[in-house]
Amino acid sequence: MARFNDDPAQMAALRSRLRAWYRQNRRDLPWRRSTDPYAIWVSEIMLQQTRVAVVVDRYQEFMQRFPTLVALALATEQEVLAMWSGLGYYRRARMLHKTAQFVAEHLGGNLPARAEELQALPGIGAYTAAAVASIAHAEPVAVVDGNVERVLCRLAGWDAGSRKGGGAALRRKIEALAARLLDPAHPGDSNQAIMELGATVCAPRGPQCLLCPLQPDCKTRGEHKTPKRAPMTSRIVAYALSVRTGKHRGPGWREVLLQQRPADHSVMPGMWELPSLIRADLSPGQVRMTVRHAIMQVNYYVRIRTVFEDDIDALTVAGGDRLWAPLRDVPGMALTGLARKVLARAHLLPAPPLDTLAPAPESPQ
Ligand code: SF4
Fold first, then answer.
1. 31 and 104: one domain?
2. Do 65 and 159 share a structural domain?
3. C-alpha of residue 179 to centroid of ligand 1, in Å
4. Is 242 in the pocket of ligand 1 (CB under 6 A)?
5. How many CB atoms neighbour CB 157 within 10 A?
6. Which residue has the higher pLDDT, 267 or 13?
7. CA 226 to CA 346: how far, in whole Å?
8. pLDDT at 359
9. Which residue has a Cα nearest atom 2 of ligand 1?
10. Same domain assignment for residues 155 and 110
11. 52: CATH
């Protein structure tokens, strides 16, 4: 068979093989059991820049807590951030919440059906609009995310690295090819098929070409250029863990000292974290635990020191609102992913899912 040449017969064959492959290989994911546009919208936002394994549990908890768009709109931002804690990229949660409030207030709580109308809403971009409209309403509009872009560039033999500089022209070619490859009779499955192929077979590194339904027509078959990973850097930081009992509150009552990040801060505004220590160069005897936490391209080696209440002012960096938070209330607070991780390791919170303990490249925003 000829390698990729973009003729209509080849497109039809690719479409059909892709669909058959998806029917046999699609992962059973909770959002794939629903055609509710709100549920699909939430999943698409969560899945941006976050691994499926991390999203699965968090998605189900989020949907139990906010089963409808109106329930989400009526929540406070702190409640939404609390349910998002550990997923990173908190700006996504804020935008999701604000858009839900807009839709509840101006559109009676109903998301528009068409991609064009969805994209006109504040906080919904072209990718999300196409995904929701095609999956929930079978609108024949192609999605292009990072996975789709990689698969199509490899299939057609285009150098994805050339996006720098001549990027707009290549982007238009990719979008046009995605539209030609879309199965108009099954646009939702067709879009999910190519995204699934990129996520599971045509992976960024080590594509499994022998398992790929596009392999007979693929121009590169693994012989593509692989973009270099940005190098990780390391930083050492240190935080105070202060826990006090409240005998006047009854037996077993415990509170932990948390500090709120300023509301106008560009990084994780309004979220709760442990107070920073003035000095990170602790002696081995002062380190209660060390936690590794990755944010973007930085590996943080986090040292945690137990600090008694009387020493807090002398040892920690002043600033931000502080709160002695009862441990029973802490799980429902908008904690940073790192604070949640440390408190879980100290057995002060239920442990997060194992996968979220891995140093995933989160964003702090
Ligand atoms: S044959 Fe290999 S490189 Fe080509 S699309 Fe399939 S997995 Fe990707």
1. yes
2. yes
3. 19
4. no
5. 14
6. 13
7. 41
8. 34
9. 209
10. yes
11. 1.10.340.30
